[in-house]
Write a structure and sequence with these properties.
The structure holds two protein chains of two kinds. By secondary structure, chain A is mostly helical. Chain A has ten helices and no strands. In chain A, 80% of the residues lie in helices and 0% in strands. Chain B is an alpha/beta fold. The chains are: A mainly alpha, B alpha/beta.
């Protein structure tokens, strides 16, 4: 019985890893037997080696650093603008009347479609890439903040007024915490768009960053380095997502969905 | 906040006399003395409220002396909640005037507090954060003391999500008491609770009212609850006060099995 339970535990734990491990093993074997040319898809072990090599020279971390800096700066500016617009439009009707329909219209433009325009405006400097990230993350944060502020329980706002909270206290203690779950959904969505935008803009025009590293590798037919770049993007995306989860756990500790199971009292 | 400090010792005094309940005359004298300290009289002069063509309240005249416990009974849609919102200052009458403590009401006032039907606790604030929602100096000490007073000592740092319905209303009551209100309005606060919890809450409310001496307005559709708690029961029907009954029975009262209570209940029920 215990042996069977151990087995089922093992299957449950190891189950999700089974397919990836098998795939990598098949890939490695196929590459080793030269069924797949190294120029099309190098063996996983070669990719690992390339990873080690770029890490050893420091080139990898240099490019990751530059990319992360661009991503975060764009997120900070774009997220900040989106958040402020969402809050202002959410609590003040005249602002919504004035701004919301225009923002909704701009939102429908795929932000990568303005790349030619951005290159004309900013050339291929840092501003171009950051600008694209700003535009990309602005709308998901705006929409979710706006929605969050608008859907704060009206009964709570009324209660806060009866209990003498001023405008500032009302915002910090009622409206912002009430809107926070929605804002964080927007943030997670924006993080995905942030990396996507950065990848595209770095492959088009850059002299540094992960995107540049992979495009440069293409010139020299270093398929393994291209794969390193792709994996790094995946890891960065996953890392950003994990950080938002931690942020959610901390900021939404009050929420029943984030509380450990506990007998009702 | 200095007011808070002044009140604290007298609160303890009230606790002592509540413990020796049989002394009714002493309690009445104590009550009279306190009336001048905290409760405020409320008067309504031909107050009316209409929403478009729909007249919800038509010319209400009412004098409530300081410290009185008034229950307002009526069918749903009879204007009870509208009347309460007018007294709180969340809404303004279309005609007439409301005075609290001799001053006309215009908007929300710090001396008037409302207990909502659903406790309306902020889910992202702990219990103590909810009680001390207005903050202010020393709020944590005051909030903790008030929580202990409503029987929730030790629950300061719990999230509202894990509280039962009765506990949530106790937190809401503590939140109202922190600011030492002169007038406390209760909008069917026990409507959603089970029968046993309701009885506990009735006892708690009666004790708190006897301690604090605020003027109380209890909205309810439960006639038995009104007769058990109130000095005076008003019946509101189609926007008019159709009955104003004084209940001069000794406290604590029994909700069932007392012929005097039953007589009052029957009279009020026939008016509703």
């Amino acid at each position: 019985m215990t042996a069977r339970r151990l087995l089922s535990w093992l299957v449950e734990r190891a189950g999700p890893w089974l397919l990836p491990v098998v795939l990598v093993a098949v890939w490695e074997t196929a590459a080793r037997l030269e069924l797949i040319p190294a120029r099309i898809l190098p063996a996983p072990s070669h990719v690992a080696l390339a990873f080690w090599e770029t890490a050893r020279t420091g080139a990898l971390f240099y490019h990751i650093g530059i990319s992360t800096q661009r991503a975060l700066l764009g997120l900070l500016i774009g997220g900040g603008i989106g958040f402020v617009l969402g809050v202002v439009n959410g609590i003040w009707r005249p602002a919504e009347t004035l701004l919301d329909s225009s923002l909704q219209m701009l939102r429908t433009v795929p932000h990568l479609a303005i790349i030619p325009l951005v290159i004309l405006w900013f050339g291929i400097d840092e501003e171009a890439k950051i600008f694209l990230v700003v535009i990309g993350v602005l709308f998901p944060i705006y929409l979710n903040t706006f929605h969050g502020v608008r859907t704060v329980d009206h009964g709570l706002i009324e209660m806060a007024r009866v209990y003498g909270l001023g405008r500032v206290a009302l915002f910090w203690r009622v409206i912002l915490p009430g809107a926070l779950p929605s804002v964080l959904v927007g943030l997670r969505y924006a993080l995905g768009i942030m990396w996507l935008t950065l990848i595209v803009s770095e492959t088009i025009s850059a002299s540094s960053g992960i995107g540049y590293m992979t495009m440069n590798a293409r010139e020299f037919l270093q398929t393994d380095v291209i794969l390193v770049g792709i994996i790094v993007y995946a890891l960065l995306g996953k890392l950003a997502d994990a950080l938002t989860r931690v942020l959610e756990q901390w900021a939404l500790a009050w929420h029943p969905a984030y509380q450990p199971a506990r007998p009702p009292s | 906040m200095s007011r808070m400090a002044d009140v604290a010792p007298s609160l303890n005094g009230a606790e002592v006399y509540a413990g020796s309940a049989p002394d009714v005359a002493g309690a009445a004298a104590e009550r009279l003395r306190r009336t001048h300290e905290l409760g405020q009289p409320v008067s309504l002069r031909s107050v009316a409220r209409a929403f478009g063509d729909r007249r919800v309240l038509t010319g209400i005249d009412l004098e409530v002396p300081a410290g009185q416990f008034v229950a307002i009974v009526g069918r749903s849609g009879g204007g009870k909640t509208t009347l309460m919102r007018l007294i709180v200052g969340l809404d303004a009458p279309t005609a007439g005037e409301i005075d609290i403590g001799g001053r006309p009401v215009s908007g929300l006032q710090p001396s008037v507090r409302l207990l909502f039907q659903d406790a309306r606790l902020l889910p992202w604030q702990t219990v103590i954060g909810n009680v001390g929602i207005a903050r202010g100096p020393d709020w944590e000490k005051v909030a903790a003391r008030t929580l202990a007073d409503v029987g929730l000592a030790g629950r300061e740092n719990d999230w509202p999500a894990i509280l039962s319905g009765g506990q949530r209303q106790r937190v809401a009551l503590a939140r109202a008491l922190v600011s030492e209100p002169a007038v406390l309005l209760l909008d069917e606060p026990f409507g959603a609770l089970d029968a046993l919890t309701r009885i506990d809450m009735h006892q708690l409310l009666e004790r708190i009212w006897q301690q604090h001496r605020f003027t109380a307005f209890l909205i309810t559709h439960d006639v038995a609850e009104a007769v058990a708690l109130a000095d005076r029961v008003l019946v509101l029907r189609e926007g008019e006060l159709v009955l104003d009954a004084r209940i001069d029975l000794p406290r604590p009262r029994r909700m069932h099995g007392d012929p005097e209570v039953a007589r009052h209940q029957a009279a009020i029920l026939s008016a509703v």
